[in-house]
Amino acid sequence: MRQALALIAVLAAVPPAARAQEQPDPATLLPQPILDRIADEVSGAVAMRHVYELGAYEGKRYESEYRDTYFETEYVARMAREYGLSDVHVVRFEASPQWHARRGELWLETPVRRLLISHRDVPAALVPGSASADVTTELVYIGRGTRPSDYEGKDVRGKIVLTTGPIAAVVQPAVVERGAIGIVSTHNALGKAIDRPDLISWTRVPQPADGPRIFAFALSHRLGQELIDLVERGPVRVRAVVETEIFQDVTHQVTVATIPGDGSTDEEIAFIAHLFEGVTKQGAGDNVSGSATILEVGRAYKRLIDEGVLPRPRRTIRFLWVPEFVGTVPYFQANADWVARLLAGINMDMVGASLVENKGNLKLYRTPASLPTFVSDVAQQFMEYVGETNREKVHNRRIAYAFSRPIIDPTGSQDPFYYHIEKFYGSSDHVVFGQAGVPFIFFNHWPDAVYHSSQDRPRSLDPTQLKRTAFIGVATAAILAGAGAADVGKLAALTAGYASERVGRQVREGIQQMAAAGPSELFAAYREARNAVEQAYLRERAAIRSASSVAKGDRRAASVAEAVADRFYRGLNNDLARIDEAYRVIAEAHGVPLAKASMSAAEREASRLYPRLVYEGVLRPTSARSDKLRGFHAQEALWFADGTRSVLEIRNAISAELGPVPVEDVRAFFEDAAAQGIIELRRR
User: Fold this and answer.
1) How many whole angstroms separate alpha carbon 368 and alpha carbon 276?
2) Which end of the chain has fewer beta carbons closer than 10 Å to its terminal beta carbon, N or C?
3) pLDDT tens digit sequence for 596-632
4) d(CA 426, CA 71)
5) In which element (H, E) is residue 533 found?
6) CATH of domain 600-684
7) pLDDT (tens digit per residue) in 89-133
8) Is the domain covering 43-96+251-372+418-482 a CATH 3.40.1010.10 domain?
């Protein structure tokens, strides 16, 4: 035992890079000495200080901020200037009138008098959108409050209803139809009330179009259950005191800073993080964490340039701190020339979460199939690097199972780094890059145990994870901002390598789908498996070709990427043959004859129709009014509609990416969109 401890002590004194390992560290497009210096420079502690400054507690906004500059805007601009970032300024866009709370108290009057909850103590308790009121009345429990049976034998007119349902769903049946004057809800939007009994979810109360103006309070599960128990024992009266105001002439504020490029190109890359989750609610995780991290990326990158570790990038690196969507959209619309010069966007929304508190990991969400790009793979290599070098491996017994290249903040945890590479997901500002046709990547930690709630405070974050996220941000930016014609071959080869992995997975999944299908479903599964592989090759070939975008106009660079893409694409027939052989074997096992694919009448018609998206400005729409396609299926169908693909080709593309949909539904969707003027349909 003593000998073992002595060995560990000796190993601990040896620098990780000097120790023998059974598994080598992953190689990346940045040299190891550069990676080491980036890891030394980025600071989770500094990022965490920003989190404490901006989101240490759930506070009320000062009324003077509505008339001038929000605290968060002013703070980020000041720190960006202090760090030496360039062109720091604030852009303002007209905003809708802003709701503000001065007072919000819910009192229990009988059977005893006491304060139940106050906006002063927990701002999330008074639901945004609430109207001023001072009423004392009976509290009536209505369960979820969304079904007629919830109201049987209960008179809620002129009373306040207590519900476990979401507030927005209760307004119509309780207020509009039955005359309630206020709502108290215990609804937990995260669905895990038992794990966080004192958490209050963020929500909003929509005012009835024709009814009286109402108010709403949100309660924790613990307080809500106590109140439900009181109501069920006998009559309960409460008093609601609400004082609110609507501020006119307010603005959405976008803070901008840059690290200027070297002048060799006018192109840019952009980091974006939403600094405002609505100005009335601010979460440390959502999204002060992302805002703090891109600020740290800017500080560290500038310092590394000043010290000669990194060269000044070819492309300008722009940092945008925005109100989510409502600041991003007008910024893009007002800067069409800038959008045309963007190579890529990087969105950080909810990063740096503690593994212990949240039991999740950092996700890298790739671009959708309609926007194939090498950009996702540049980030993926650094995610994998951090993941492989910051976890214990049984293979590394010779270094006492230690992290081989630890990226650990002195104020943070010693936790490992876990990650997932995910398909596209929207619901944050990177979608706006996609609307503009600009490749993007999205970093997000999920799950988040305190998302959109009163408990989204710094304790749910970890400086070590913030440091690692900043490291990935700086490393990714160093490649994207610095790459030129000489780098096209490496970028294309990197993407081709990852593409081979993804195609291999697609082949495996297709074979598994056929193996799981019954005899009557086998042929349909076979057709979808072939389609998925064909679409994967088309998508990945385009992603490999996109590497030449770092050297626009350079024919030689384009030919290099094209050669790599063509060589990769030659594997299609071999992989289709594997699908065919699997189909033959499975069909034989089922005792069913092999069928041959042929176009149906609906497919032939769809192959003759070519949709083209019609829109003004720089941003493509993401939806159309139709019950045929919804969500990401609808978005991708629209984004594929560039006039060069038929309805059938688009059906095949979105089916491979998101799951099979009938060609008839895709055609009907485009016909609905055409009737709305979003799509132009041409027959060929």
Assistant:
1) 26
2) N
3) 989 999 999 999 999 999 999 999 999 999 999 999 9
4) 28
5) helix 522-545
6) 1.10.10.10
7) 999 999 999 999 999 999 999 999 999 999 999 999 999 999 999
8) no
